Structures
1.
Amino acid sequence: MAFEITCSGNITTLSGLKNFDIESILECGQCFRWDKNNENDYTGIVKDKAVRIVQTKDAARFYGCTCSDFKEIWNDYFDMSTDYGAIISTLTTNDDVMKMAAEFAPGIRILRQPLFETLISFIISANNSIPNIRRVIARLSKMYGEKIDTEFGAFYKFPDPGVLGTADVSEIALSKAGFRSKYIKKTAKEFNENPVTTDQLKNLGYTGAKKELMKYPGVGAKVADCTLLFSGAYTNAFPVDVWVKKIMEELYLKKDTPLGAISDYASEKFGELGGYAQQYLFYYARSNT
DNA sequence: CCACAGGACGGCT
DNA sequence: AGCCGTCCTGTG
């Protein structure tokens, strides 16, 4: 690995980081459960592990994180084994648009998040705003997730499929998920009765995995692509939402290009790196338009 | 009061 | 197969 790890009890420090900017990573729309305490200072929970991360330049300190926690959870979650410098280098060759987008936020990384949490989170994201998505997920976790107390606050685990799958839709609706409440319940129920793993999705191939996810109620092409990308299953997944549609039409294509045509173009142009390209473009579009 | 937000669904043709 | 009205909730 290119960076160095120093462990001291409950604190793990990374130094010599490249292409790692905690704000870009946590606020580029791929995750919804991190809270900003200060500049470059975030707390969050993944599975049953809560952590506080404070970054200064090319170093990041993880509080509430032992060396084995980092190796078991966070190293994979933050995709630390991937060389983002090489990805940017490939994407920006002969492509001034990608050059501009990647230079805007070279510290973005694609998180490898738990599959069920990612699936439900992006069902909630349909026709919804990020602040509202965050509130709904926080309420569901508090209602149905196990409480985890730490030195830097209380956290709630993301609910298990069995719990969400057996809850009443009217009760789930108290989270303000609206018309998505019935999708949350049904998808959780189906997932619990027939669990799917990231490895199983990888064995299906991208197209097969996407079709499999689209069997769940509330999951269309965009939600399926987000789930495949942000759970670490397929880096070629290229979610096309209104922002990506807009900037792809503006910078590469022309107005009123159908969603499917944008997907095809991205697949042809970016290939296996489509997901990374999507994040640079998305973050650039959201921040500059 | 109305428009619209980081889509999916169902009922049309 | 493609088009289009509708859908909870929060914000402007």
2.
Amino acid sequence: MIYVLADMEYEGVLIDHETLKEFSKVLETDIGKLEKTVYEKAGVRFNIASPKQLGEVLFEKLMLDPKAKKTKTGQYQTGEDVLLALAAKSDIVRDILDFRQLQKLKSTYVDALPLMVNRKTGRVHTSYNQAVAATGRLSSNNPNLQNIPIRTERGREVRKAFIPRDSGHTLVSADYSQIELRIIAEISKDANMMDAFVKNLDIHTATAANVYGISLEEVTSTQRRNAKAVNFGIIYGQSAFGLSQSLGIPRKEAADIIDNYFAQYPGIKQYMSDTMNFARENGYVCTLMGRRRYLRDINSANATVRGFAERNAINAPIQGSAADMIKIAMINIHREFKALNLDARMTMQVHDELVFDVPHHEVEIVKPIILENMKNAIKTTVPIMVEIGSGVNWLEAH
DNA sequence: TCTCTCACG
DNA sequence: ACGTACGTGAGAGAC
């Protein structure tokens, strides 16, 4: 793996300066407008980027919430969830949320990435760390290329600035579909969930049909949304409280959904209790490939501390097995590219996605190599699906 | 250097 | 009564 990562780091990625420079100006203008509006609505100039000052303005001057909560250091909480709850009745809060989003984009990505370009190569060279994440995932720093925006319209603009090395190349991106849910199906051998993947169903729709006892065609968008939240929450050991918070529904309703979920997927319930028992007796848990995560707090007398360790015990084999799988795929793809003397290069890894810089004439050669190696990295019963695309920038390739 | 916030899977 | 979903890295402010 070291050799693969070294080659990726040396290779680096090309950034389109002009796109980012232009975007930075646009953001600066928009941020300036938002600042002005916020000052007018607040009746005072202050540093919006300071959580301390912002909390005082919102909760002492404007009295937006008499029951505003404070952090353990005595500051008002001004996190996104807090502000979103106030946004419905206060347009200054909506402006502040917009300000935050744009400020983050500008300072963390749009202005910072060009400064990371290497003088000699003209490219950005991240570091991939193999021994940071406790689950076996990689991490990336200087700069972090594993958290480039994608969820919002304006965030996606940043991805357009990640481009091939020249006009003779194209970016190819391949990502695993629902890899963690496939792995929990594989590890738990739950018949119902395996069946959904074997039939290549939309897993969240299939889960909704199971949980609500209806046919696939009858599933509403709300039911699918609820099922999706449970599918994700389960991977992390989420409680009824947590599910009710994330969906904005009563705790009783969340508890019913979870009960139905475990009734439909008894193998997953079994996996969770087996894994916790294993951890209690052995002090560690294992991935499919035998990687261990030690859990020193698994038998702690402190329920909160123990709860954290228990959720780690459930999550680590899932997240860690997915990490093992993509690493094996990377080694095999790297080896095959070398053997065939290809000019295509692997340039980025984002947990379930690989990105390549490929000469046009090699695109149709590398696609099957990438697909086969990603799908077959580890022998599984559950089918593993990979989506692949190409384009003139990272957003288009995705 | 710590805290808070927020970007990603 | 308490806390409540896992894994990261980075920027800005405050001290």
